[in-house]
């Protein structure tokens, strides 16, 4: 099945009270170059936690915006793509029907799902809602990230087409295993077995199995 896609890129900007970010993106049209680092012209402010080979593209389901607008009716105008800083926006693909390791064709390129997006505190400043990163994580409405396994030219009017499914772990399952369940070694092993899982998530799950504890996510979610 083909999924029409809207495409967005952003430049790094300063945010009062927070660190610089490229979350504010603008829609682009026409032919673009996609490399292993992402779309040419798209920037990331802190490459230790954003971007890189396993996080070259961010995808957010457009249908989630209706949920967020209903949660915050007084700020409903904020909740339109690409408010969450996504590169790709579609309807019909969500965390429940996209799986870790899925490979999509997009123009000349092939991209692979590597992990859910891990919401961070910059979203709180971006929306002016103190805990929206935590809400996003708790709701499992995180979107997901891709690696580029075949670079090339992409067109903004070229759809995403699923060409391979390599695991039975949905993005929603991965969110649940990582953030919603108490310590569960069997589920961590299941997630680690998902072909295509990012290096950072592989490291985190393996650390949990070795330490028998879940790491503190407060700094990521709150900036503290």
From TrEMBL:
List, alphabetically, the Pfam families matched: MOSC (PF03473), YiiM_3-alpha (PF03475)
Domain MOSC intervals = 26-163
Q: Which residues form a coiled coil?
A: none
Q: Which InterPro entries does this UniProt record tie to the protein?
A: Benzoxazolinone_Detox_Enz (IPR052353), MoCF_Sase_C (IPR005302), Pyrv_Knase-like_insert_dom_sf (IPR011037), Tri_helical_YiiM-like (IPR005163)
PROSITE patterns associated with the record: MOSC (PS51340)
- UniProt-listed NCBIfam families: PRK11536.1
**Protein name per the record:** 6-hydroxyaminopurine reductase
């Amino acid at each position: 099945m083909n999924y029409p896609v809207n495409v967005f890129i952003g430049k790094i900007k300063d945010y009062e009270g927070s660190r610089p970010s490229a979350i504010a993106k603008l829609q682009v049209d026409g032919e673009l170059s996609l490399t292993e680092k992402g779309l040419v012209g798209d920037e990331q402010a802190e490459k230790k936690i954003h971007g890189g080979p396993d996080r070259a593209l961010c995808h957010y389901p457009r249908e989630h915006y209706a949920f967020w607008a209903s949660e915050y009716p007084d700020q409903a105008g904020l909740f339109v793509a690409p408010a969450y800083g996504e590169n790709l926006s579609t309807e019909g693909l969500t965390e429940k029907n996209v799986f870790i390791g899925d490979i999509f064709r997009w123009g000349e390129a092939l991209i692979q799902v590597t992990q859910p997006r891990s919401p961070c505190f910059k979203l709180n400043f971006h929306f002016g809602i103190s805990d929206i990163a935590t809400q996003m994580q708790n709701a499992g409405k995180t979107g997901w990230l891709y690696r580029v396994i075949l670079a090339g030219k992409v067109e903004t009017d070229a759809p995403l087409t699923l060409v391979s499914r390599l695991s039975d772990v949905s993005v929603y399952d991965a969110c649940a295993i990582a953030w919603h369940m108490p310590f569960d070694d069997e589920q961590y092993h299941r997630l680690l077995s998902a072909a295509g899982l990012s290096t950072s998530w592989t490291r985190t799950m393996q650390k949990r199995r070795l330490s028998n504890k879940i790491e503190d996510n407060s700094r990521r979610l709150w900036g503290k």
